[in-house]
Task: structure prediction
Amino acid sequence: MASLIYNSLYHDALKGNLDLDVDSFKMLLVTSSYTAAKSHSRRSDITNEVSGTGYTSGGASCTLTLNSIDNTNNRVTVSFSLPSWASSTITARGAVVYKARGGASSADELVCFVDFGSDISSSNDTFSLAYITDLLVQN
Result:
């Protein structure tokens, strides 16, 4: 797998469906069985979410921040806060960031998928993603 920006992000942003300053976002964790696809557009498209002690389905809240626009290299840097799961026993290979509307998963717009490169596990300990600091969005 590789990290990616879901194609629907651009559509949803241009239609005004996403507002970094107002909207609630969440990060959910997935296993190595999840196959990331740029064509996924809603949380209902996500399969193989982790389960285990200390993890709640749908993930945890996170905040997205637009850091910089680099017109020379045609890219934008977006960072997001990193939730952690205390006293958890889970194994994850990646994370999905999405807009959390608080209802049906078919309404939640996807933002990005972050591939950890290998499984990360916790065993009755805090599951943390401290090494992920930002995501480069490049056209």
